[in-house]
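Forum > Structural Biology > Help requests

Title: Can anyone predict the 3D structure of RING-type domain-containing protein?

Hi all, first post here. I have the sequence for RING-type domain-containing protein but no way to get a structure on my laptop. I'd be grateful if someone could post the structure tokens.
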Amino acid sequence: MNASQPPPPPAMPGYNHLLGTEDIVGFRCRIGFSIGVLLLIITTITLISYFCRRTSPSQTTPDWTRVHHHFIIDGLDEETIQSYPKILYSEVKGNSTSTCCPICLGDYKGNDLLRQLPECNHFFHLKCVDMWLKLNPTCPVCRTTPLPSPQPSPLAEVVVHSTSSVATTRMS
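Reply #1:
Sure, ran it for you. Structure tokens for RING-type domain-containing protein below:
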């Protein structure tokens, strides 16, 4: 060796333990174990999510194809429909402003049999409105229900009378 070369610098005493072989191996093991646990957790969550969706009946059909049975409104029964008056068009020709059926848009003829809805007094071809009322409980024109309104109960009359007497005592 050449005596003119300076000796190598001494190793820094404070950092030797970080560069030790045992510490690096332990650190790598901990990182590998942590990554393995993380992959196991992600796989478990993915499988649980997949099986939950697969067995759920609500996820098998899209929202727009689902039928909500509690929103279905049935039409009127046959007995109620048959209780509405039937009239020949020739009998109401002068009293009616309508000359065509609002359902089929066909003109009324003198011998056409019409049905009149009791609440709104609209006229329709008998066959047209009967089919309509079996599916829908309302008038096709004004959407009022042709069912007779229920009679007021005695309790409702008491409430009406008591509120009107309160109003008259406040006014005087």
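Confidence is low (pLDDT under 50) at residues 163-172. Residues 27-54 form one domain.
Shout if anything looks off.
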